[in-house]
Amino acid sequence: MITIKRILCPTDLSAESDAALRYAIALAGAYEAKLLVCHCAANSTSVEGLAREELKERVEASVREWAGAGDGLPSGCESIILRGDADEAINKAAAEWPADLIVMRSRRRPVAAALLGSTAEAVCRTAPCPVLITHPDEREWAGLTSREIALRKILVASDFSIDSELALQLALSFAQEYQAELHLLHALPVTLAQAVLDLPPEMESDFQRAARLLKQSVPDEAYLWCNVFHAVKSGQPYREILSYAEENEIDLICIGAHGAGFAMRALFGSNTDRVLRQAPCPVLVARPLKPVSNASPKLINLP
User: Fold this and answer.
1) What is the pTM of this model?
2) Contact, 279 vs 129, CB < 8 A?
3) Where are the domains of the chain?
4) Same-fold call for 1-130+288-303 versus 135-286
5) Which of 244, 239, 189, 232 is nearest to 207 (CA)?
6) C-alpha to C-alpha distance for 59 and 42, rounded to whole angstroms
7) 17-52 confidence digits (pLDDT tens)
């Protein structure tokens, strides 16, 4: 069972960004967690005097709308204003609090804009905790008509790394909590898949080895409380992940955060970035809980 005691939910106060509050509020209720809703102001002048009071009211109004609350904020919910670059401020706030999970919205953008990256992608690269990314026009499973969570199918994209092992542990916990199907997928490069034809019969192929490792990665007891499916595909990992999620009506993709070097990622995107941009459902990017060593962000508590 994963421990979620503190959830951080950033919002830019747009209707689209505020939609992440639906997931944050539902998860906070399910895990009896505290919820911290934050808005990042680009400069100090925007959080002074009347402007600060206006921001306070807008943040709290968004929370009340999605929570169905009355005049006050829901129990266990607080609001803060951050200053500085959004991705850095969000991650520093998550480390300082500290948060167990960040829940935020990512917009669907044109391909040209995607090359530059997004705040959500930047947060995922350096976050001190797991990050749940939601999108518009996707398969939804939290708080649609109430605060209940209807999570039925979870996909783990595994490359047998430490990051994907963490993604599996998160997925196992969610699958047990909500009695959801657990799907494990590994994608082999096309070159390795073609090499299988040249192997002698007595040798284990990469397909067979991957299938064996996927099966072994799931504890035996997990098969007692959920249905587990394994799949080994060949091709570009992000394409295979997206195709599998679409074809099998997956509700949540769990994936590790590691990828290519920063320069390559900034220009072309890692598998994780590409899945984030195109996924047909929310994506949980697994990151280990750890502190951020940089200076703490400037926080302004909203009383």
Assistant:
1) 0.85
2) no
3) 1-130+288-303, 135-286
4) yes
5) 232
6) 16
7) 888 998 999 999 889 999 999 998 865 545 555 576
